[in-house]
Amino acid sequence: MKIEVTDNTAYETEDIITAKDLVKSYRLGDGSDLTVLDHMNLSLPKGKLIMIMGRSGSGKTTLINVLSSLDTFNSGSVSLMGHEYSQMSDRDKELLRRYQMGFVFQSVALIPAMTACENIDFGLRTAGVKEGRKERIAEVLESVGLAERGNHYPVELSGGERQRIAIARAMAHRPRVIFADEPTGALDTESGFHIADLFLELAKKEQITIVMTTHDVRISEMADEVIRL
Description:
By secondary structure, the protein is of the alpha/beta class. The protein has helices at about 60-65, 90-100, 115-125, 135-145, 160-170, 190-205, 215-220, and strands spanning about 5, 15-25, 35-45, 50-55, 75-80, 85, 100-105, 175-180, 210-215, 225-229. A 6-stranded mixed beta sheet has the order 1-10-4-9-8-7, with helices on both faces.
């Protein structure tokens, strides 16, 4: 799969994620190989909203899974902050994900029996944060515009509100990068724009690199950089 990278803004900053000559293929039932990522090269800067755009089946989820070390690759290299995945153990990659990455998915995956505050606190405790959790929870709830909804359970929130709580949970431990796979896919157009705008604001304010997949051309126009599959 070849890519086209479009810069929507001019900037000078260091790269946080790099991929060189990246190849990812799957073995099919007939014994042949399906190449999804074909000798891909990427350099993604810190503190920017980067969107991976393409139709269904184009390899968006595969790319985000490889960049986040959730999936392996056949050849080439991928590194986060200089940590080369192929030189790391599974345990080291797990720790890198836990402490330096956040994740947001189309299916929000909040814990139903926990309030919004408790869901965020669970993420903080998973990332090993022991002090200042209450203050950080209040801070991220304010950042996503839900300061008054912290004691509500997921069932009491709208789809857009649940997704914003998921974003608050993903950013609470101050990761270096957030990976978001079709986070607006299940939302109406207006809510989708609100989520993209929130990501753009968070990337600048918190200096978090946000890598997000989308199939919506209008939403992709809000990104600092677009990768087209």
